[in-house]
Amino acid sequence: MTDEPLTDEPGEIETQAAEYALGLLSGDERLAFEARMAQDRDLAQDVDAWTEYFVTLTDGMPSKTPPARVLKRIELAVHGAPEPPIWRSLVPYLMGAVGGALIAWAVFMSGILIEAPGDGRIRADLAPAEGQLAFAVLIDPPSHTVSLDLTAGAVPEGRSLEVWLIPAGAEPISLGLATEDGTFATRLSDAMAARVPGATLAVTDEPVGGSPTGAPTGTIQAAGVPIPL
Which residues form the Anti-sigma K factor RskA C-terminal domain (predicted)? Predict the structure, then answer.
């Protein structure tokens, strides 16, 4: 392979056709060759012939499925690193809140707060994250009910608000859709209620009818961490 301009010297153009078929030409040299090939039908046929020839060199080799890690490395090289899920943008926003909530839960579950004022309910103030909405959430442990009320902002027109529970270290779980005026109520199963301590509650705006993928896809309007009252 050479960095010198293309010439009509015998054999040189055929050599470059072979190098092109192998992917060895690069930069200006490759561009110059492709420009010439676009005008020279015989040269394009030479490249095709070399390509077919090189393929025959591997005919006798046994096929082998590469490890999955090899495919991942190829995909990473071609497409780049995948975009992180939208909900992961909540992580730095909520780290401090999660830490404080876990301490509150530990105290609550240990019984230290049994004689403290309050009715045993759990609250969460969902503050604006990427959007402009805010919500007040109340969770009643005995009945496993969750209620949500819009306290600031307006529901985006033509969108549905979807409520998510994001347990620590796990994927978001949809709890359902809020009404058009931003209210929401549901009853959690025993298994779901057990995942509330240390979890994050979030509200996203989604296409009408909810997320088409089962995971958050729209703007994270608000988020917060439930803590014992």
Answer: 121-220
